[in-house]
Design the sequence.
C-alpha cells in the first residue's frame, strides 16, 4: 500500500514530462498594455508603412493648395485619434521624390489603401502612395499620445 502513492506520483511526473513548460512572463511585462497595443509575445505587431511620393498632378493654385494641406492635416489627426495611424510626417529632403510617410496599425495593405484614399493629397494627385508590410514594436502606437504632451502648438 505504501508503494501505491509513490507509483501514482511517478506516473504523474512522467505524464507531464512530455508537456512543454510555460515560461514565466518577463519582469516588467504589462499584460494590459500589451493587449491594448496588440503586441505579440515579443512586444511586436504588424503595420503597413506607406511612403508618400510626389504625384502626377501637383496642386499649384495657392488657395486650393492651402485647403488641400489643411484637409491633409485634419485627416492625419482623425486617423491618429482613431488609433489606426501610429506615425506620420514629412521627409526633410528638398530635392527628393519622397514627401512623407504614414505608419498604419492595420492587418493588411488593403485596409491601409482604404485609409490613404481618404486623404486630400492622394485624391488630388498631389501625392501617390507605396505600401509595405512592416513588423515593429507595438510601443510605436504610444508615440501619438506622447507627442501630444510635447507639442506647444497644433497644426
Sequence:
Amino acid at each position: 500500500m505504501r508503494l501505491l502513492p509513490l507509483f501514482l506520483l511517478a506516473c504523474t511526473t512522467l505524464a507531464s514530462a512530455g508537456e512543454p513548460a510555460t515560461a514565466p512572463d518577463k519582469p516588467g511585462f504589462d499584460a494590459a498594455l500589451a493587449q491594448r497595443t496588440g503586441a505579440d509575445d515579443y512586444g511586436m505587431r504588424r503595420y503597413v508603412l506607406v511612403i508618400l511620393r510626389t504625384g502626377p498632378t501637383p496642386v499649384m493654385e495657392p488657395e486650393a493648395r492651402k485647403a488641400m494641406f489643411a484637409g491633409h492635416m485634419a485627416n492625419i489627426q482623425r486617423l491618429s485619434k482613431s488609433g489606426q495611424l501610429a506615425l506620420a510626417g514629412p521627409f526633410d529632403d528638398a530635392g527628393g521624390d519622397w514627401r512623407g510617410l504614414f505608419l498604419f496599425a492595420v492587418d493588411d495593405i488593403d485596409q491601409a489603401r482604404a485609409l490613404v484614399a481618404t486623404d486630400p493629397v492622394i485624391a488630388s494627385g498631389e501625392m501617390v502612395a507605396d505600401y509595405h508590410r512592416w513588423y515593429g514594436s507595438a510601443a510605436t502606437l504610444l508615440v501619438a499620445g506622447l507627442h501630444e504632451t510635447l507639442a506647444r502648438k497644433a497644426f
